[in-house]
Every structure is written in C-alpha cells, then in structure tokens.
Hints:
Elements: H1 7-14, H2 38-43, H3 50-71, E1 76-82, H4 84-88, H5 91-100, E2 106-109, H6 111-122, E3 126-127, H7 134-139, E4 142-145, E5 148-151, H8 153-178, E6 185-186, H9 188-202, H10 206-210, H11 213-219, E7 224-225, H12 232-244, E8 249-250, H13 253-265, E9 268-274, H14 277-288, E10 293-300, H15 314-320, E11 323-333, H16 336-348
Parallel strand pairs: 1-2, 1-9, 2-7, 6-8, 9-10, 10-11
Antiparallel strand pairs: 3-5, 4-5
Helix pairs in contact: 3-16, 5-11, 6-8, 6-12, 8-12, 9-11, 13-14
Amino acid sequence: MAKIFNFEKAKENILRESDELKGWPEIKGYEFSKGFKLDKFLNSYFSTGFQATNLKIAIDIIKKMKKEKEAKKENLTVFLGYTSNMVSSGLREVIAYLVKLKFVDVIVTTAGSIEEDIIKCQTPFVLGSFNADGKELRKKGINRIGNIFVPNNRYIEFEKLMSRFFVRISDELKQKNKKGISQNTISPSELIFELGKEIDKEIKDEQIKSNSILYWATKNNIPVFCPAITDGSFGDMTYFYKKKNPDFKIDITSDIVKINDIAINAEKTGAIILGGSLPKHHIMNANMFRDGTDYTVYISTGTEGDGSMGGARPEEAVSWGKQAMNATSVMVEGDATIIFPLIVAGVFVDEK
C-alpha cells in the first residue's frame, strides 16, 4: 500500500521548535571595514568557527603557559616536538625564535631537522614547485621536499662539516676514555649539543647563526633529543665515519633516562607538537611517567581514522595517561606552516 503524503507532518518535521541557546558565543568573523589590528584579528578566530576556533584556543593555552613560566610560581617544563619537514620550511626561524627566548625547555625531533638546520647555516634551500618533474630534478642533482628544492651540493658541504666534527668528537672521547671518564660513547643529545658548538665555531655570520635552532639550544642549554638520529643524511655521514672508526658509538639508552627523568621531576608540563611521528609519541610517552601533560597543543594534518600518531587526538592521550585527565588541550587540524606562525604571533608579538 502506498504511503499517503502528509504535508502538515512534513512541514512540522522541518520547522520544529528548538531550545534557545542562551550564553553561547555568536558566530562572527573579522570586520575588515573597521581597519586591521593583529590582536583583534586573531581574537576574532574564536568566534569564526571550525579550525579557526581551535587555533584561538591554542593561542590561549600557550599564553597561559607563557604566563606561568614568567611568574615562576611553578616549575612548568615545556616540551616542543616537530618533524624534520618543519625545519625544511620557514618554520625553522619561528622555532629558533622560541628557543632563543628560552620559552622551550625540551626539544624532540627527527634526524632530518638536525641536518637541515646545519645545512641552512651553510647554504639556503630554495622555493620550487610541487609539480616539478622528478626525473628532470634527479638528472640535475636536485632533491625535492614538497615545493622546496635542495640541491645535492648542500649535502656535499654538510659531509665536509660532519667529517671534521666526527674527528673532533672522537678525539675528545678518546682522551676522556684514557682518563677513565667515558668508554668512547656519546648520547644523541650530547652529540647535538656539540653540533651547536660546531655551528658557532664554523659559521661566522651572526645573523645566519641567529636563525639556527641548534645554535640557540646549545647556547641556552636546552636538550635536543633525537632517538632516530641515524635516519637521513646524518645517518649516512655516521655510516661513512663508523666504517673506518668502528669503536665510535652513539648511545641512545642514556637519553631515554634523561628525558623521562625531566618529565618525572617537573612540577607541571606542557607539550606543543607540530606533526606526528616519533617526536609526538616520545614526548607524550615520557609524560606518561608523571601521569600526563597539564597543557597539550597538537597541530597536525593527520586523521584519526587510521590510528596514526599524527591523527591521535588529546583525548586518546588521556586514555594512556600521557595527558592528565584535567589537562587543558586542543588539536588544530591543518598545515603547521600556516597555523604555527599565527599562534606565535598571537602569543609573543606585543603590538604597540
């Protein structure tokens, strides 16, 4: 039997009465007709909706972290994690700025960001195209990271620096070994600390050095952890050196003790993580030893559906004890090269 169409019932379904939402923020964007002020522009993100709202929440969380660090009432330790592509891009200078300010207390990253920070102290990367022909680039000795070109000559210069560096470090370790101080081993964080010294020694231009993350990390005694240090070109250089110097050893186990102890002994912790992968998990896993972070800001293009670390939301971290149950947190979905500079501007730029 055919269903009888009931016009009034259909109308009632469409035009149903609703509860009035009193006290909820009105959705409203920035009014450019009234001129432009950066702080007002970024504040308007909260009422814009979607990821703009989450971006403003991230600004507010990091502002609170900054205020706590300045007040020094509690020992707030800020962990910053990022993948190597962040340093491939212009985010390198943004991160270096935060390290220079000593806002960051601990860094966790991947091998590519270590080598690329050093390479950029020697010669810059250049803007290319996402659509460049891979075969033609290969013939010309040009490597592509997204729409960023890195000529292979950059790695040749990097190899020269690393060859000198490994000789210096090995000689120093051997001297310590003779005195019974060490067993010819060095941890990744110690190695990276020494690389900051190497940048200071090798690079004479102060402006170039001032854009280096490793330079400021060493200068401000901020540990940089890189559990996967043998990945990428850094690993290639280590391979070349160790083939001729088999006694040279990098000990990753001492760093896991160091980072976990930092988390355990911190009164409060905050995590700012760009991307996913190893840095995100390494930071959050260390904080699991203290029952989780107090502040968490994720910025990622990752999706949750595949169970990836990049797509994992703060609520997932709560289930593991990596984030405290009462923590203040947000995940901003999107490209960190767009989002993170806006956040830093909203937190650290004081408009006159």
